[in-house]
């Protein structure tokens, strides 16, 4: 039925924003306890699993995959600038930050 397909499509598009909110709350609590680098590497698992699930032609798998991808996006956006600021040499911090923002806008 067309109404049900539209409903599933709407959920699949909205769920990354909702799951990103949960990961940002998680980061606020654990970024100093676990470490930024460990969290970034952990989020790589979520984006990998989410990408695999979204390729399966099954509506629940697509929704779960989009949820996992949203967790990754919500986690990497606040963590990436902090990590770049920590590991970049002082003279390149500005350029690395600029290129990070440009790459976000281009993707």
Secondary-structure blueprint:
Blueprint: H1 2-34, H2 36-55, H3 59-87, H4 93-106
Helix pairs in contact: 1-3, 2-3, 3-4
Describe this structure in words.
By secondary structure, the chain is mostly helical. The chain is 90% helix and 0% strand. It contains 4 helices and no strands. Helix 1 (2-34) runs parallel beside helix 3 (59-87), helix 2 runs antiparallel to helix 3 and helix 3 (59-87) runs antiparallel to helix 4. The longest helix is centred in the first third of the chain and has 33 residues, at 2-34. The termini are far apart. The model has no long low-confidence stretch (mean pLDDT 86).
- Which percent range describes the beta-strand content? under 5%
Radius of gyration: 16 Å
Strand tally is 0
Unreliable parts: none
Largest sheet: none
End-to-end Cα distance: 33 Å
Q: How helical, in percent, are the residues?
A: over 70%
Give the tags.
4 helices, 0% strand, 107 residues, mainly alpha
Task: Summarize the model shown.
By secondary structure, this protein is an all-alpha fold. It has four helices and no strands.
């Amino acid at each position: 039925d067309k109404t049900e397909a539209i409903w599933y499509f709407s959920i699949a598009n909205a769920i990354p924003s909702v799951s990103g909110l949960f990961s940002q709350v998680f980061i606020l609590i654990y970024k100093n306890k676990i470490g930024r680098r460990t969290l970034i590497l952990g989020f790589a698992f979520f984006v990998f699993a989410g990408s695999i699930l979204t390729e399966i032609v099954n509506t629940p798998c697509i929704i779960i995959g989009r949820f996992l991808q949203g967790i990754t996006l919500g986690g990497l956006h606040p963590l990436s600038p902090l990590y770049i600021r920590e590991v970049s040499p002082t003279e390149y911090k500005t350029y690395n930050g600029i290129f990070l923002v440009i790459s976000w806008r281009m993707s």
